[in-house]
Amino acid sequence: MKLWGGRFQKEENQMMEDFNSSFPFDKRLYQEDIMGSMAHAKMLGNQGILSREEAEQIQAGLAEILTDIQSGALSLSGDYEDIHTFVEAQLTQRIGEVGKKLHTGRSRNDQVAVDMRLYARHCAQDLHEKLKDLVDALVSTGQENNCIMPGYTHLQRAQAVTFRYYMEAYASMFRRDMVRVENSQNLLNESPLGCAALAGTTHDIDRKQTAEELGFAKPVDNFLDGVSDRDYLMELLADMSIIMVHLSRLSEELILWSSQEFRFVSLDDAYSTGSSIMPQKKNPDSCELIRGKSGRVFGHLMGLLTTMKGLPLAYNKDMQEDKQPFFDSYDTVMAALEIMCGVIRTLRVHQERMEESVKNGFLNATEVADYLVAHGVAFRDAHGIVGRIVLRCEEKQCAIEELSLVELQEFCPVIEESLYDYIDYKNILKKGNKKEML
Ligand code: ARG
Q1: Segments making up each domain of the chain, as ranges
Q2: pLDDT average, residue stretch 315-330
Q3: What is the distance in A from the centroid of ligand 1 to the CA of 317?
Q4: What's the CA-to-centroid distance between 184 and ligand 1, angstroms?
Q5: CATH number for the domain formed by residue range(s) 14-104
Q6: Which ligand 1 atom minimizes the distance to the CA of 323?
Q7: What is the CATH number of domain 362-437?
Q8: Mean pLDDT of 349-356
Q9: 365 preceded by a cis bond (ω within 30 of 0)
Q10: 265 and 257 in contact (C-beta within 8 Å)?
Q11: Is the pLDDT reported for residue 134 higher than 90?
Q12: What digits encode the pLDDT tens for the residues 385-411?
């Protein structure tokens, strides 16, 4: 079923009809589509373009359609070109001829643009909430396990940090993601309704009214831009891609940490799976899937950028291709955030194992150099001295603090008994700005 055909003499090719139809995927916009239509009908009534009764009849019909879809009494199925066609057809079926007046002063071009903005605004809100949950999970799991652990550069043990601080690093990333999503949400909050096909309408419509009714800050400035702007979708896809980068990095850490080589953490059974052949296996599939799904979200961003890049103004059917990538990314990122939140909340942190690892790998070597500096040695000389101490320790397979004072003094005479306290891992974190990590 189509909303056009008057000027056609032949039937549409069947495959072309399927190729053209967006109903299988844009039906998820039913709520937004109905809200947009209700606002439009109300405004048409206020402006005297339709009579008050007509406008009210249309609005009541639309409200009924919405209720029926929500209750399951009306199923979103059938041979329709798109959600807009479905709703209009339903309306006319229910309220008769007056239903045909709904589309006065409007085009599907501004209609779909409104639907997508409303939908994207809602998605941004959902993403924001899920990000907040994850931040809370990271902060509380960190606080519950405030032990020291090795920090790495080049994936080589570098200096002592705390697990709480490590989790805070990820919380900072997800907090930035929240701000990014808020910014996108603010930027997209303009109404394209009333742009009509591309050039407005001869009817005396009021775009401010509909914008306000739908909770938009204002109508868009320009009709041509209004119907063909998909920046907000690209932007949210970019935001979601960055969220996936962050989730994927965190996943990678957890995958490494849960390996036998690290044994820093164990994932809860609820977020792990087993092997069909190796009975001993417990695999971190939750994290692997999140890491893997990042590729799919990045792909959707690239896809939409490519779809949009060559389009002249104003609406082009290419833009129908904005929906599946956006919907799929949203579903994927929402699920990934929720799963990661569960992983973090149920994570078992092996504090002793982490603390043990801090002691191997000379994670206090920089502090030995700091000690020498505090006793008058220039840092560059101190660096060389500690390097030689580390070499000796490697030969003897011991930690720096396991060398005797006499032996240490061979390398540098300023070293005193106080060094041992200075480079003790628990004490290190009480000095300078390292206190922030405690
Ligand atoms: N299904 C279309 C889309 O998603 C709706 C707009 C159709 N406009 C048109 N002029 N055919 O973009």
Answers
A1: 14-104, 109-355, 362-437
A2: 98
A3: 6
A4: 24
A5: 1.10.275.10
A6: 4
A7: 1.10.40.30
A8: 97
A9: no
A10: yes
A11: yes
A12: 999 999 999 999 999 999 999 999 999
